């Protein structure tokens, strides 16, 4: 498989799924997917890096310094038990995101495999973003926000 095959496969998958997406002009080989579910909005970014497919969904607001420990607790609580992917936060700037990835080796990635990487990512962000934002803004404590997110399903 040659460099670029993975991201081109992802692009074809996003077209087939009718996701609102486009290239990121400042970052070659990165595709942005835009989400608006009414009560929550975010952007996801797909890229090929070192022969792997990476998909990040970013919280639209960085956690301020004084809320980062609370956010770390929240994402630790919601990560526990997740079967695919995980939340992570950069403690230096408060960026919080959900990551799923796939290492296809030398094999092309099927549409089904793209689905198995993308669906859990988008689902987790849709499910947990409202609680994450409440914790970032100080409107909820981590344990309660995580419990509320679990009940909403």
Report on this model:
It is a single chain. This protein is α+β, with helices and mostly antiparallel strands and 153 residues long. The chain has one domain (5-151): Yope Regulator, Chain: A. The chain has four helices and six strands. Helix 2 packs across helix 3, helix 2 packs parallel to helix 4 (142-151) and helix 3 (111-136) crosses helix 4 (142-151). The longest helix is centred in the C-terminal third of the chain and has 26 residues, at 111-136. The chain is elongated.
Spell out the key features of this protein.
single chain; six-stranded antiparallel sheet; Yope Regulator, Chain: A; about 150 residues; 6 strands; alpha+beta
Gyration radius from CA atoms, angstroms: 16 Å
CATH architectural type = 2-Layer Sandwich
Largest sheet: 6 strands, antiparallel
Distance between the termini: 39 Å
Low-pLDDT segments: none
Write the layout of secondary structure elements.
Blueprint: H1 5-17, E1 21-23, E2 30-36, E3 41-49, E4 52-58, H2 68-79, E5 86-89, E6 96-102, H3 111-136, H4 142-151
Helix pairs in contact: 2-3, 2-4, 3-4
Short note summarizing the structure:
Helices cover 40% and strands 24% of the residues. The protein has 153 residues and is of the alpha+beta class. It has a single domain, classed as Yope Regulator, Chain: A.
């Amino acid at each position: 498989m040659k460099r670029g095959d993975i991201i081109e496969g992802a692009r074809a998958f996003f077209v087939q799924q009718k996701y609102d997406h486009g290239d990121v002009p400042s970052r070659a080989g990165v595709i942005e997917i835009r989400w608006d579910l009414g009560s929550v909005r975010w952007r996801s970014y797909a890229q090929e890096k070192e022969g792997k497919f990476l998909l990040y969904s970013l919280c639209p607001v960085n956690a301020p310094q004084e809320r980062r420990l609370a956010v770390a607790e929240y994402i630790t609580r919601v990560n526990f038990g997740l079967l695919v992917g995980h939340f992570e936060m950069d403690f230096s700037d408060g960026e919080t995101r959900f990551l799923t990835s796939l290492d296809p080796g030398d094999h092309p990635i099927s549409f089904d495999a793209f689905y198995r990487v993308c669906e859990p990512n988008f689902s987790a962000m849709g499910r947990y973003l409202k609680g994450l934002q409440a914790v970032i803004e100080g409107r909820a404590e981590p344990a309660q926000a995580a419990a509320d997110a679990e009940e909403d399903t």
